[in-house]
Design goal:
It is built from no helices and 12 strands. Helices cover 0% and strands 41% of the residues.
Length: 153
C-alpha cells in the first residue's frame, strides 16, 4: 500500500526501556522526529523514585509536568516530589499538579519522587530533539550523559 501524504508526521515508535526493565513513552531514542526541536518522555510514577541524583543543565528550555491520575478529579494528588532549582539548589516541594519551566542554562535537580501514595503522570518536554545533560560536577567541555532524562529529565 502506498504511503499516505502526511504519514511522516506520525510516529508509533514510542516505547523506550527504562533501567528498571519497564518502558516509558518517549521520542528521545529517535534520531530525528521530522526535524523537530522537541522531545518528550512520559511515564507513570507509582513508587518513591530518585529520578535524577544531582544538579545538571541543558542549553535548551524544558517543561516538567507533574499531574495526578484520577480521571474524575484532576486536583486529586497525593504525592511529594522534591526538586531543586538554581546554583544555590533552592528546594521546592511539589504536592499538587504542577508544571515547572526550566529555562536553558538553569541548574536543576536532584529530582526525587519522595512520597507516592497515588500514581502521578510525569511528562518531560524538552525544546530539543537531541536531549543531553551536563552534570554540575562535569567538565563543561564534555557533552554530558543522555541518561534517562527527567523521565527523562
Amino acid at each position: 500500500m502506498a504511503a499516505k501524504k502526511y504519514e511522516k508526521y506520525l510516529t508509533k515508535n514510542l516505547l523506550r526501556p527504562t533501567p528498571d526493565g519497564k518502558h516509558m513513552i518517549s521520542t528521545r531514542h529517535l534520531d530525528d522526529f521530522v526535524g523537530s526541536d522537541f522531545s518528550i518522555d512520559c511515564g507513570f510514577i507509582t513508587q518513591p523514585t530518585l529520578m535524577i541524583p544531582k544538579a545538571h543543565k541543558h542549553d535548551f528550555d524544558q517543561y516538567l509536568c507533574i499531574f495526578g491520575t484520577n480521571l474524575n478529579d484532576p486536583g486529586d494528588f497525593d504525592a511529594e516530589i522534591e526538586y531543586s532549582l538554581g546554583e544555590e539548589h533552592e528546594k521546592y516541594i511539589i504536592n499538587s499538579p504542577t508544571i515547572v519551566y526550566v529555562p536553558a542554562g538553569l541548574a536543576h535537580g536532584p529530582l526525587n519522587f519522595a512520597r507516592i501514595t497515588k500514581p502521578v503522570l510525569f511528562v518531560d518536554v524538552a525544546k530539543s530533539n537531541n536531549y543531553y545533560r551536563t552534570w554540575e560536577d562535569e567538565d563543561p567541555e564534555d557533552e554530558g550523559d543522555e541518561g534517562e532524562g527527567e523521565g527523562g529529565e
